[in-house]
TrEMBL record:
Domain DUF2059: 76-132
Protein name in the entry: DUF1573 domain-containing protein
Pfam families on file: DUF1573 (PF07610), DUF2059 (PF09832)
Organism for this UniProt entry: Winogradskyella rapida
Transmembrane segments: none
InterPro entries referenced in this protein's UniProt entry, alphabetically: DUF1573, DUF2059, Ig-like_fold
């Protein structure tokens, strides 16, 4: 019995030692393949971002905070990653990976990886845009298939049976073949972005009751406007349902699904398509240059740049880079909507200036189109601001 217990204990401790050994090897692998280094960079960048947004806090605090956050975050990361590596790699495979990353070739890969990723950043962004354009073009070509007269007659019959409405101007519209839903496609085509375009769905009420139309309740933007009439459509009556593309708001290639509600719950579904020029970021800045005044206290009064959105599209300040760390920044991190203003505040530190040769300061302010956290169409612009 004693012998059996001894064997069990030896086996248990052997498993624990082996598990610890494997965990240690995975940690070593995470260091060698650059995972730990990349995480440490992310932590440093996060701290630097907060440092710029919270001026007046000592450097010693930020250094201590970075060490504390690094210790906690890396420990949590290992708890997440180690079980996944253990599940997908045997110990022998982990040993082979460690050997590889310790080799000259492995070290070369890790050394060049950040450079390659940085150089690939813009090309991959362009590749992504080209991919989206290619897919849209393929969809458009599919949608350009002409309907035969039999298909049109079948569509009219099914549409009348489904909605109680007769389409009177199908030659001005199209059957939405792209989604194969058997409903209408309203194609505004390629626009110049200068004048609104109105399309008409001319319908006749072929049902036995009045039909009341309502605009879509969940329209996410104001690019499309509706004029559906202000009273119910009587039995046998005809009406033009007007759908207008607002030129100053529409941009890029777009294909979306919309619906007109009628009779308290039923919907007429249709596709909306257009190809409009991209809208650029438009802004005004109160000053491009401000004059530096000699500091009389440890911190200067705020130097304020006022930024106004003068365009039709919203944007936000995605980043601000200083050419030297002699001041602290504060700015609005939220979206700046058309006609709204925001402030960029700069506060100089006497302590930081003492470490530099001069007080001239250059700010590179990056503006990114779109709602913060949303799709930006990759449009951006950089403003150079100076305090001298």
């Amino acid at each position: 019995m004693t012998k059996t217990i001894f064997i069990i204990l030896i086996t248990f401790f052997s498993i624990q030692i082996n598990a610890q050994t494997v965990d240690g090897k995975i940690e070593k692998l995470l260091e060698l393949d650059g995972t730990i280094g990349n995480i440490e960079k992310i932590i440093t960048q996060t701290i630097e971002y907060q440092k710029k947004s919270n001026f007046g806090i000592s450097d010693n605090y930020w250094e201590a905070l970075e060490k504390k956050v690094s210790k906690k975050s890396l420990a949590e990361l290992k708890l997440i990653v180690i079980p996944i590596y253990s599940k997908n790699y045997t110990e022998i495979e982990i040993d082979n990976l460690i050997t590889f990353y310790n080799s000259e070739t492995g070290k070369l890969i890790i050394e060049n990886q950040p450079i390659i990723m940085e150089e690939l950043n813009l090309p991959l962004m362009q590749w992504s845009q080209n991919l989206s354009s290619y897919v849209i073009d393929e969809i458009e070509n599919k949608g350009k298939n002409e309907s035969s007269s039999d298909e049109e007659e079948k569509f009219k019959t099914e549409f009348k049976a489904k909605y109680g409405l007769q389409i009177l101007n199908l030659t001005d519209l199209a059957i939405d073949q792209e989604n194969n839903i058997g409903d209408l496609l309203i194609d505004f085509g390629k626009t110049d972005g200068k004048e609104d375009i109105t399309k008409i769905i001319r319908v006749k009420n072929n049902s036995n009751k009045e039909i009341e139309f309502q605009e879509p309740k969940f329209l996410t933007n104001e690019v499309i406007k509706f004029d559906l009439g202000n009273k119910p459509l009587g039995v046998g009556e005809t009406r033009d349902l007007k759908i207008t593309l607002i030129a100053e708001l529409a941009e890029n290639k777009s294909y979306s699904m919309l619906s007109i509600d009628y009779n308290n719950g039923d919907r007429i579904q249709f596709g909306i398509k257009y190809d409009a020029p991209a809208k650029e970021i438009s802004f005004e800045i109160s000053d491009r240059k401000l004059k530096f005044k000699k500091l009389k206290q440890d911190f200067s009064r705020p130097y304020v740049f006022i930024l106004k959105n003068t365009g039709k599209k919203e944007f936000y300040i995605s980043d601000i880079e200083l050419d030297k760390q002699i001041a602290y920044l504060n700015w609005n991190k939220e979206t700046i909507k058309p006609n709204e203003e925001t402030e960029i505040k700069v506060v100089f530190s006497k302590q930081l200036i003492a470490k530099q040769k001069n007080t001239d300061l250059k700010l590179e302010v990056d503006l990114t189109k779109g709602e913060k956290g949303g799709f930006s169409s990759f449009a951006n612009e950089t403003i150079e601001l100076i305090i001298e």
